[in-house]
Amino acid sequence: MFIIRSALAALVLSSAALAADCPKDALSSPAAGTTCACPAANIMNGWVYGTGRYTADSSPCTAAVHAGETTSSGGEITFYTGGSCPAFASSTANGVTSSSWGKFDQTFAFENPLPDCALQQAAAATPAPTAAPEPAATPAKPATPPPAATDEATPDQLQARADAYAAIVPEPLKGWNATAREGVWSTSGMTGYSVTGGRIYKFDSPGVHDLTIFVFGMPDGTPYPRYETMWTGTAAKVKIAGRDAVRTEESGDHMIVFRNEAGVFLVVGRLGSHATTDAEMDAYAAAVDFKEFDKLPAK
User: Is the N or the C terminus of the chain less surrounded, counting Cβ atoms within 10 Å?
Assistant: First the structure.
C-alpha cells in the first residue's frame, strides 16, 4: 500500500509540475524544453516578435497561439530555446500579429531542432492580409435598385486612419531602438474591433527593457471602450507632458492614457515585470507631438 501511495503521490506531483503556468518570457528557460500551461486570461495580450521562431523576450503563450500550438482558450504547450537569429519577421496568424525585430541573441520555438532563421524572411516577403477580401458581389437584376449608401468606412479608409495614427508616435529616444511604425485595423470577431497605430521601443541593454506607444480608435468612430472606461471612471486625472492623463495599472500592465477631443486615445504602456520605469514612460510621453495627436479624427 505504501508503494502504491508513493507512486500516486509522484504522479500527482509530476502532473502539477506539467500544469505550472508558463513564464512571461523564455529568457531563463532551458534548451531541453519547457512544458507548461497557458491560462486563457490575457493569453492574447503578450508581446511577440518573429514568425515560427521567436525572440526569447516574447510571451510563450501568445506566441503559441500565433504558431497554432494552442488557442485563445489556453492549454498546455512545450517550447525549446536556442541561439540567435539575425532578424525576425512580422506576420498575422490565429488572431495574433507578431512584430518584426533585428538580431536577438536568444530564441525559442515549438519544435526541436528549432526552425532555420532564414525561414522567417520567406514569411516576411508574403505577409498576411490585414483583412479578409470582400466576397464578389452577385450582379443585381436590372429592375433591382442599388443598395442604399451607408456610413461604414471602406478598408482603404480604415487603413489610412490607422497609418495616420501610427505616424504621430515619436522617434526612439537616445539609447533606444524601435520597430517600424505600423497601422492596423480589424472588424473581425476573432482579432477584435479596432483601428490602431504605433510601435514598440526597446532599450539597448541586457534584459527586458521596453515599452509601447499606440493610438487607439474604433472603426465606427466611437471611443475605444477599454480606455473610455478608464477615462470616465474614478481614477484621478494627473498632469503628464503638460496635459490631462490617467496613470493606471491593470493586470500587470502599467499605462499612461491620453484622450483628444475626438475620442481618440494614445497609450504609453509597459509590463510591470520588465525593467522599464515610470520615468522612462514620462520621457516618452513628453516626446509625443500632441498638436498632431489633437488633429487625429475618430472617424
Answer: N
